[in-house]
Amino acid sequence: MKQPDLFDVIIIGGSYAGLSAAMALGRSLRNVLVIDSGKPCNEQTPHSQNFLTQDGKTPKEISTLAKSQVQEYETVQFYNGKAISAQKTDFGFEITAENGQNFNSKKLIVATGIIDEVPDIKGFKESWGISLIHCPYCHGYEYRGRKTAIIANGDKAFHISSLVKNLTEEVRILTRGKAQFTHEQLEKLKNNQIEIIETEISELKNENGYVKSLVFEDGNEIDFEAVYGAFPFRQHSEIPKDLGCEFTEMGHIKTDMFQKTNVSGLLVCGDNSAMMRSVSNAVMTGSVAGAMVNMELVADDF
Question: Where does the FAD/NAD(P)-binding domain lie (predicted)?
């Protein structure tokens, strides 16, 4: 079998984690192909916060600057398209794009992120990432002192409420059904004057994604200025699963401390493998993945 033209590394996903990995590899003179469909999960978010030197910039501003810097490394190439499948080969990995084009590499990094499964309730999708938010560290400061709802239940709701209570006194938990708290949790919520509402939500009224109020199925309507939501998610790409990666109970790809999966030569980084969803964490894990892939290539060749 003739060896195909091989990149040292293919990176699937060209947002913060993928670009960070590409920079580390470009600086090590590795021939890299970044395959990116151009649809990051935070494209609706107006501002990115809590990332040193870039605080308050739009996600697009940060990624555009990052890509322009990575493009300065001549050994890094970009392919605008979606990777739909991958398979192990004698030489490493073969990646197939949506248009049928194939690419081959010795190593593979997957930085494809996750997709949030936002409830199909009127106003939710329009507000997701704007005033319907997921993280107090990413968005909480901007909504400090505001009337705030937390759409979650059980341990998740309790955890978020403990963080949000530090930012505002006006907090309600909306469980959308029977509340599932321990006696101790209920006592702490009561002591912190956090009301629990079990009624299902029928609508999130908003203006251009900024919440004005929540309407409940019993007809009641309550004004809010911020809403935290703890929703399920799924992997943005099935490629890690198809290649045999192991997953955590929550649905993240399992890695060791160096972003390595159980599949030889395959590393992952960013939101697909981390509970901490932030630009800074994506950049950090991408940098680690890039460095570790380079070390694997060094070990193979030296």
Answer: 7-286
